[in-house]
Amino acid sequence: MSRQINQPSNQIKLTNVSLVRLKKNKKRFEIACYKNKVLEWRSGIETDLDNVLQIPNVFLNVSKGQTAPTAELAKAFGKDVPLNDIILEILNKGELQVGDKERAAQLERVHNEVISIVASKLVDPRTKRVYTTGMIEKALDMLSSQAHQEREAAASGAGSKEKSPAAPGTPASGENGEAKPRPAKEHVWTGVVTTKSAKSQALEAMKALIAHQPIPVSRARMRLRITCSTNVLKQKAPKSSSGAAKEDAEGEQKAPGTIKDVILGYVEQVENQDVLGSEWEVVGFVEPGAFKGLSNFIANETKGQGRVEVLDMAVTHED
């Protein structure tokens, strides 16, 4: 004989759910979403809200099925704000609640993406060859361990100073009682997090690797084609362009010279250059950090008669 199980008609069973929480006006509001759909929505892959929400409603507690009263929503989000707008605000700004396994998997995905981006953008400056992802990972681990050790040392040092302050007249650091100047803020790498995009974290990782050099690294150079009318090349460059001029043997800044001189000043290595009719063309390698200055100079000083074309974003050599 079969048994029938009666359940309350208003009970909604949520399965495979991800919660997004937003605290506003000292109240916590939640929405119930399908797993993996929140990140797809935020990255623009998913555009249909119905595919993201399990229930188009706002809750105080999803697990208990406790919906948010209209008065509470109005108090927190404003009067006459449509429910859909409130849901979108929670979805876009709220904190995604995930389990330990899902969080670990997400962290691993971001970690692998960061390592992959960094490995494709950095090279050994001597050979111009890329490093393996394993080498990049080890180098970043070294920086992360160093950063954590320095934090612990700083924390213990601060504690000892509070317990035993230096005697009056004792130099804090440096000689002759002069205070040692605080170093400029350096690029610090403490590891991958899930709250930032992989692209932005890869940029931070590259800056840290270049600043600290746990292994010899430099940004892979860009390969560009620069073309300009020969009529413009011989014109004198403005003094404001002196930043692009190279230093002479005695370390003094040379005058910017002509438009052509300034353009070539940005190019680290010329692959070839030629004059085709009334147009000069040069193909060469430029450090990524110089690309914006070069582009701005050509846009502002060639009167529309020059242009820059990117042939390769990152020139590397692979075994």
Defining traits:
about 325 residues, alpha+beta, Hypothetical 12.0 Kda Protein In Nam8-gar1 Intergenic Region, Chain: A, Arc Repressor Mutant, subunit A, Alpha-Beta Plaits, 11 strands, disordered N terminus, Ribosome_mat_SBDS_N_sf, ribosome biogenesis
Descriptive account of the structure:
This protein has 319 residues and is of the alpha+beta class. It folds into three domains: 17-97, 2-Layer Sandwich (Hypothetical 12.0 Kda Protein In Nam8-gar1 Intergenic Region, Chain: A); 102-154 and 186-218, Arc Repressor Mutant, subunit A; 221-312, 2-Layer Sandwich (Alpha-Beta Plaits). 38% of the residues lie in helices and 18% in strands. It has helices at 37-43, 70-77, 83-93, 100-121, 133-163, 198-212, 230-233, 259-266, 288-301; strands spanning 17-24, 27-34, 59-61, 66-67, 95-97, 122-123, 218-219, 222-229, 269-276, 279-286, 306-312. A four-stranded antiparallel β-sheet has the order 9-10-8-11. The protein has a three-stranded antiparallel β-sheet with strand order 2-1-5. Mean pLDDT is 82; it is low at 1-11, 166-184 and 242-253. Residues 253-313 form the Ribosome maturation protein SDO1/SBDS C-terminal domain. Keywords: Cytoplasm, Nucleus, Ribosome biogenesis. Pfam families: SBDS_C, SBDS_domain_II, SBDS_N. Associates with the 60S ribosomal subunit.
Oligomer: single chain
CATH architecture name of the largest domain = 2-Layer Sandwich
Q: How helical, in percent, are the residues?
A: 25-40%
Order of H and E elements: EEHEEHHEHEHHEEHHEEHE
> Overall pLDDT, averaged?
82
Domain tally = 3
CATH class term of the largest domain: Alpha Beta
Summarize the main sheet: 4 strands, antiparallel
- CATH topology term of the largest domain: Alpha-Beta Plaits
Number of DSSP strands?
11
Strand order of the largest sheet: 9-10-8-11
Distance between the termini: 72 Å
The helix/strand class is alpha+beta
What are the low-pLDDT stretches, counting only 5+ consecutive residues below 50? 1-11, 166-184, 242-253
